[in-house]
Amino acid sequence: MAMPKKKAQISVYLDPEVMKALSTYAARRAQPMSLIVEAAVASFLSPDGEERREAATSKRLDRQDRRLARLERDIGITVETLALFIRFWLTTTPPLPEPAARAARAQAGARYDNFVSALGRRLAQGPRLQQEIPDDVSDPALQDEPDS
Known about the structure:
This protein is mainly alpha-helical. It is built from six helices and no strands. The termini are far apart.
């Protein structure tokens, strides 16, 4: 019966902060420090270690890219919604005669406060406009471009 190879022992000098972090990590994982150091050295020396780090970085970048695309979409929806509302309001609201205009200006502060309160309630309880618009609605400007 063949005896299993015995592990070799080495001595290393670690910075006190690194040693403290290693000790804390080992205690948290309930693992011996030597096992954690062995795994770290094996990972460092592994030929595919760089590829794994690159894959992890690519995955994070892809996630950030998707979030940025959603953010751009949401901002676009917001801008178009505001522009449509302003255009609609300007075309349907006739100018007020001067006495009525003064009264309207006097009420403007209270009406604005009511608007801000309503907006706060809408944001707090939803549903939000961006949730009502399907994700697969594409930009008409992009439809003219050929797929690459």
